[in-house]
Amino acid sequence: MPQNPLIVFDLCGAYGMFRKFYTNSSSLSYPFPPRTTVAGLIAGMMGYERDEYAEDLGLERCHIALSVRVPVRRVMQQVNYLMTEGHVWTGGAGGFDGSKGPIQVPLEWIFPEVGYRELRYRIYVTHEDRRWLESLREVLESGAPVYPPYLGMSECPGRVEHVASTEDWSLGRRGEELPISTVLPASALSGPPRLGAGTQIVKERTPLALDERRRLIAAGDLLYNRAGPHITARLESEVFEVSYQESHEYGVFMQ
Amino acid sequence: MAIHDGDILYLYDAKLTNPNGDPDDENRPRMDEATGRNLVSDVRLKRYLRDYWLDAGEDIWVRRTEQDETTSSKQRMSVLLSDYNRDNGANLNERQARQSREFKDWLLRRLRDVRLFGATMPMENTSVTFTGPVQFSWGYSLHRVEINNSATISSHFAGRENEYGTFGKDWRVHYSLLAFYGIVSKSRARHTGLTDEDLTALDEAMVRAIPQQATTRSKIGQTPRLYLRVEYEDGSALRLGDVREDLVLTPQDGKTLDTLRDIRDFSLGYDRVLERVRAVEDSIVRTRLWAHPELGDAFECGLQERLGDRLETF
């Protein structure tokens, strides 16, 4: 069976906010969009509604990897949200309109490191349905997504840039140590990653997939190197190898 | 007129004032400490717009408690529902209203801020979230901003019986030229029933709201400087995007970028923005521009040259 293409595109913007799923009152952010956010982004650009894309972008049918191209930093700000406790229809409760006053919530933004114009994440997508990939490629090439791209929240409008759609890639198990450009599922490692000078590996527990009612159905630990472009490690799981333009990269899908 | 996808660039400046305090930091102006840039939330910007429309007699969904004493005592939705029943000769109860498509459409027709910026509204068994077709990023200053030394102020609060004041800090920025990026989404406009008239109202409010609304002690001293809204051909590939980093500030008269105190202390260069406009020119259907007289007409002339009658000024 011929292999379906791998689509590579960048998500860019001034700043982002990728809310951690296990925080409550404080809104903390992942340093990169988790798989669920990327799935929602792709679905929105292709014109799916909120409750329509769980299956097409689920773990079974769609494979997504992500690489952090611009180093990030965090900026904490306290914001005023509306207190909406209770329900606006019932006696004495609710406040979707601001009637219960504001509530102050610490909010963590992701900004590009000083000296960079904007955040940049590279996203790699493949799918079991070749026609689906073709329509994603058309959306990316036309530059006119149905719903506009965001970096996590609607206050973070961004843009996408189509980088490549390539058949020049392969997926398989590899015995040797490889520099992995993407964020890396902790479960993919067969041993500790190489810790060179300056390597700063961070582990983030992120959501991986939601069901059609937007309930969490899978989560996983992802590793990323805050200080550099890749993590060098020997891997147990399948690794993809892709060539496009001047790049030759190794990556692992988020699953 | 049909709604198109669009981009918005908006600049205003703040002089010896506090554009947006951080409630967790003594209400100090919001700062990105690593770059020295001043920040303003999208919520702050939209509050000016909503207050402006409220003052103009429009109904607005998101209010402040003190603006309408009835909101907290009676339920706001119940007030709206009785208006709906009266206007339409209907007799829906709350349960029926929650399931009524007509009531939802009526609400959207009535509430401009929801059509523009979206809202979470109680409907059916739960709440419905409308994502607004118009979204603003947080604004940031295009230069490093200095915060003045906090003058300690003392104030007497009503109802206090003793003669002692309360000490507080009064943080202000010396000068901050703030830039916001916004978008308009035609697909989202369909969901909230956004009209072209709403966008025209937005254009005007962006220019008028701050002078009219920012009149309290900590907010006075803010002036809109530039507003640009671009509309794109449907299905077109090219977009201007966020061009805030393409604006170039050049200090004048021995000033440096770190010591700006006034709009007259620098010139604003648009060449890179105009280059971007040239690159996406074929996608542009219409552009609406307002510029403060103190900024001069360089930008308008540059746009005029490229866009001709696709440029409207107001």
Automatic annotation (TrEMBL), chain A:
Q: Is Transcription regulation set as a keyword in this record?
A: no
Alphabetized, the UniProt keywords read: Antiviral defense
The keyword Calcium is assigned to this record:
no
One of its Pfam families is: Cas_Cas5d
Record GO biological process: defense response to virus; maintenance of CRISPR repeat elements
Question: Which InterPro entries does the record match to this protein?
Answer: CRISPR-assoc_prot_Cas5, CRISPR-assoc_prot_Cas5_N
Protein's UniProt name: Type I-B CRISPR-associated protein Cas5
UniProtKB/TrEMBL annotation, chain B:
What Pfam family is a match for this entry? Answer: Cas_Cas7
Q: What is this protein called?
A: Type I-B CRISPR-associated protein Cas7/Csh2
Q: Which InterPro entries match?
A: Cas7_Csh2/Csh2 (IPR006482), CRISPR-assoc_prot_Cas7/Csh2 (IPR013419)
* Gene Ontology biological process: maintenance of CRISPR repeat elements
